[in-house]
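Please produce the structure of this protein holding guanosine-5'-diphosphate.
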Amino acid sequence: SIPLFLHSFVFRASGLTTLPSILLIGPSGSGKTSLLTLFERGTSAAQTHTSQAPISAECHLPVGTLASSDKYRSVNDPTNLTHKKFLLIDTPGHGKLRHHALANITNPQNLKGIIFVVDAATLSAGDEGLRHTADYLHDVLLILQKRAESKNKAVKALKEIPILIAANKGDLFTALPASLVKSSLEAEISKVRSSRSKGLLDSGIGMDDEGDRDEWLGEVGSTEFRFKQMEEFDVVVEVSGGNVAGGEGAVVGKWWTWISERL
Ligand code: GDP
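Below is the modeled complex.
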């Protein structure tokens, strides 16, 4: 067999490695397709189309961004001359098509992280977008939580799952800043969580039942949901703002940095 360091070189050279991948997820209209187009072409001229099925694009880190796996390479290392590539996988946000997205989460192919894109201009209290987004995010987090608890090794393949909540459309004046996006989503997920468990109780299944703990997101006994509670399940959530489109051009630096730190 070939030594480990050569192994990675041989496969890199032959192009047989699966590229590290980042999954894009989130409600319809939040800007996933625009983001994908921007990251693929590196331009802000994002034309979008209605996504019917997952679309993926091969992307490169922009010049000057160093992937964390390259941090200890010598400056003379020839691999520094090529841009770090990764695969960005778009998923449809429409309710009916969500199973694609959820199938991708539970079946990671060299998955390095998940970007959950939200429209920060539709997350004010009472906005229908807030409930809808919190509902979707709740389900995604619950799948990841169950995955962490799963005894199936294959399902647990990636120990830690980093999630970036990309608070998009920051250019719009109704957009909430990242800190408020975070607290609004936490508050709304708390409501989703308690109404779901009430639903379970009403259906006659007791919460102290073995199986039901599985349906409760985050810390048992907590009244308020906090993203921090997900760390117990190796799910690390970060929220940062930006915009893909908008008058003054794209602001996506923090998201690039987040990606580069995970490759
Ligand atoms: P998807 O359904 O999540 O793929 O969302 P799209 O990428 O199709 O975007 C939905 C709409 O939001 C499109 O009209 C985009 O041009 C617009 N959009 C996306 N990102 C931004 C942004 O940062 N700011 C503004 N103002 N509009 C955006």
